[in-house]
Amino acid sequence: MLNGKFKTILTASNGVEALNVISRNMPSIIVSDVMMPEMDGYELCSRIKKNKDMCHIPVILLTARDDEHSKKRGYEVGADTYISKPFDIETLLEVIKGLLRNRKQTKQFYMNFSAVPEMENKNLGNADEIFIKKLNEVIKENISNPDPDINLISSSIGMSRTSFYNKLKSVTDVSGSEYINRIRLEYAMNLIKSTDLSFTEISEMSGFTSSKYFSTIFKQYIGMTPTQFRSKEREA
Questions:
Q1: Residues 135 and 209 grouped into a single domain
Q2: CATH number for the domain including 226?
Q3: What residues make up the domain containing 60?
Q4: 133 part of a folded domain
Q5: How many domains is the chain built from?
Q6: Long-range contacts of 69-77 (CB under 8 A, 24+ apart)
Q7: 136 in helix, strand or coil?
Q8: Is the pTM of this model over 0.70?
């Protein structure tokens, strides 16, 4: 049905097999029938959305049931979209493209430093939003530590180190160190705007190893030096 439309398509004959395929391959999107042997689509979707490693993956449920109760159950287990049979293949393709486009926009949001990590992002699902908010909290609690313990950060979120890196990359397309630097810079920018602290003090409080490195990273992301940024803010 979708052969030739996408670079790689993985298939499974039942829900249990599908869950194994998904956990091993982490696909960009999941299209599942509701009626399947061993584990139905509702249970599959529920397990995906409750799993911190997989919950960011969009899920489309396909079913012959068109009643409101079935649709409600689909959304209750976390389905991103519920499509009733029969359906036009072009409709399914457009839904897939729309969900993938949302994921791409989410990654672009985080690739742009002007998008502060705590800003609301309508493309984030509830589980992803909780992940990002918790991550921000843990980083800020340890903001002055120049050598953050990734094991501590990942365990505080309830994930392994590898799962944490994979999850962050899948949601933001940004590495762990880069994301932490963005939180540090956001904190430093607020200190520059609201205090008369020296840049050396701000650098230390923000967790940068040296004021020189701080200035280099600051200019790289913000497009101006800390001195220029402070002058601009005070002229405003």
A1: yes
A2: 1.10.10.60
A3: 15-111
A4: yes
A5: 2
A6: 70/34, 73/42, 74/34, 74/41, 74/42, 74/45, 77/42, 77/43, 77/45, 77/46, 77/49
A7: helix
A8: no
Do 40 and 76 have their domain in common? yes
Flag whether 119 is in a domain: no
Tokens 């899948």 sit at which residue? 170
In angstroms, what CA-CA distances link 38 with 22, 41, 85? 16, 10, 21
Residue type, 132: I
Last residue of a domain, one of 81, 111, 141: 111
120 occurs within a structural domain? no
State how far the Cα of 59 lies from the Cα of 227, in Å rounded to an integer: 48
State both tokens at 209: 């190893």
- Annotate 36-98 with DSSP letters as a single string: -SSS-HHHHHHHHHH-TTTTTS-EEEEES--SHHHHHHHHHTT-SEEEESS--HHHHHHHHHH
Calculate helix-pair angle for 226-235, 211-222, nearest 10 degrees: 60
Q: In this predicted model, what pLDDT tens digit does every residue of 138-174 receive, in sequence order?
A: 999 999 998 877 888 888 888 888 888 888 888 888 8
Strand order in the sheet with 30-33: 30-33, 59-63, 81-84
Q: Which residue has the tokens 């959304």?
A: 75
Poorest-confidence range of 4-8, 53-57, 134-138, 151-155? 4-8
